What we know:
Blueprint: E1 15-17, H1 20-33, E2 37-42, H2 53-65, E3 70-75, H3 85-93, E4 98-102, E5 113-117, E6 121-125, E7 133-136, H4 144-156, E8 158-159, H5 163-166
Parallel strand pairs: 2-3, 3-4
Antiparallel strand pairs: 1-7, 2-5, 4-8, 5-6, 6-7
Helix pairs in contact: 2-3
Amino acid sequence: MHSPDLAGASAPQDGKFDTLREFKLHLSRAVETAQYELLCLDPDFAFWGLESAQMAQLLRAFFLRRPDARIKLALHETHYLQRCPHFLRTVQAFPLACETRQTPRKLRELRDSFCIADQRHIVRRYHADHMRGEAVFSTPEACFTPLERWRQLWDACHPCLPVFSSGI
């Protein structure tokens, strides 16, 4: 299910990465591995490949694994996601499975970027403007601090992108 430019690449392992290609490989693995929950934070998700048909397939498979599977996206700006037809169609097909919230203005200087899957796996870029980061799978303790940060931020955010629940 990987995009053609990633076909034939070996499965990503735990560790550091510093390219967009490696980031997307780790992110794909996190989505493929997730069973019930994806908690995501990024200023706008522009580097996440959400516009691709391949990621839409991975998300659709994630939503179909369990009826209670959920993805929660916290972001600063919504413009990019509003221009991702594959992503929008996928979450519209599963309207209760996706929740998107926007950070309040006072928190938009935060540059975190990470995906926590099932509170056991994390793919994290150290700064949203750079590709350097790390991926850790099957290690819940690696998720503790980012998970707490995500929960605090999520509580401060407000719902956005009502198209997800009302349809186009």
